[in-house]
Amino acid sequence: MKPIYLDHNATAPMLPEVARAMDRVCGEAPGNPASLHSAGRHARRLLENARGEIAEMMGARLAGPQADRMIFTSGGTEANNLAILGMAGEVPGQIVISTIEHPSVVEPAAELKRRGWQVDLLPVNRDGVVNVGRLDTMISTDTRLVSVMLANNETGVLQPVAEMVAVCRAKDVAIHTDAVQVVGKLPVDFRHLGVQAMTISAHKLHGPVGIGALVVRGDVPLRPLLHGGHQQLGLRPGTESVVLVVGMREAFSLWRQELDQRPARMTQLRDDFESRLKSRIPDIVIHGEQVNRLPHTTCVSFSGLDRQMLLIALDQAGVACSTGSACASGSTDPSPTLVAMGLEKGLLNSALRFSLGAGTTALEVDSAAEQVCRICNGLRPGNKASKRASAPR
């Protein structure tokens, strides 16, 4: 059977159109965009045109009074580090993050704590939704920054960032959101959202690996992590990769062309997948099923089974999925997100994440669901009916 890739939250395979756009740039723009000769100026034009187009598609404004900034980075991890460490300031104070943040937010926050900062954690409920009510009581005169993701990378649960923006605005506190998993799946408008900074990444929406960005309001102070060059206002020195930026632009353009179709199609495929699982494995738990989720992500616990064993068995059957964040792959510890949701040990130890992409087909979803049901029922001890259901077809 042809392998079925259902791990797009880890990385979404680059689309052919993106590869072709990057290949064209390799041939026509050999210059360094910081160079003053014609080749350099041509590379600079391509770079800045792509920056402007991406910003426009993200609802950012790079011109006019209080213009926003789009700072290209090596990906979402660097952009999150730049936001947390760069926006917090020099004098130790307090920052607030949620208990379900990606490691690229958690670990910079931990670094600040080692430097004497106070780091407070916003709890989530059993569905994985951040408790907005707690934010108002957590913010103090020492609060420098709040950072809460727009949607969780493991459960797909959308977070009430707009409500948190209102709280932060009333308290005059900056707020950053990691929108990596939302961009390319649902519409995102930086200005409308109201945050001071937002992280995006190309390879989560079928663009190239190695390029992301931090979108920042023009009036937000930001300290660079790197030093040694004047590029990007000195906030992220180093020669920009025109090829990667153009690839990112192309991935965003393709998403925009499918803005009206892609979310609905992925939602239908996800719902079909979940329905097939529930019909054959009635005791599964779909995390966040009762709240707003991303259209392409489902996190499922198969009670009584081991997630690592399931992952290996599915991989051998040609279905690629994950046990959580790709940045924590190889860890045998349960998902911090699911732990924060207060789930029982049996649900923690049996959870798998399946995530669809732009090219996922209905046939692939049906075949993957069949393999999941066959393997799960086959692994349940002492169930004759399950063993019949798990027999090869």
Give structural notes.
The protein has 393 residues and is of the alpha/beta class. It folds into 2 domains: 4-12 and 260-390, Aspartate Aminotransferase, domain 1 (Alpha-Beta Complex), CATH 3.90.1150; 16-257, Type I PLP-dependent aspartate aminotransferase-like (Major domain) (Aspartate Aminotransferase, domain 2, 3-Layer(aba) Sandwich). Helices cover 40% and strands 13% of the residues. The protein has 14 helices and 12 strands. The protein has helices spanning 16-28, 38-57, 76-87, 103-114, 132-138, 161-171, 190-193, 242-257, 262-280, 307-316, 336-340, 345-348, 362-379, 384-390, and strands at residues 4-5, 69-73, 94-98, 118-122, 143-147, 174-178, 197-201, 212-216, 285-286, 297-301, 319-320, 351-355. The strands form 3 sheets. The protein has a 7-stranded mixed β-sheet with strand order 2-8-7-6-5-3-4, with helices on both faces. The chain has a 3-stranded antiparallel β-sheet with strand order 9-10-12. The longest helix has 20 residues, at 38-57. It is globular. Mean pLDDT is 93; it is low at 384-393.
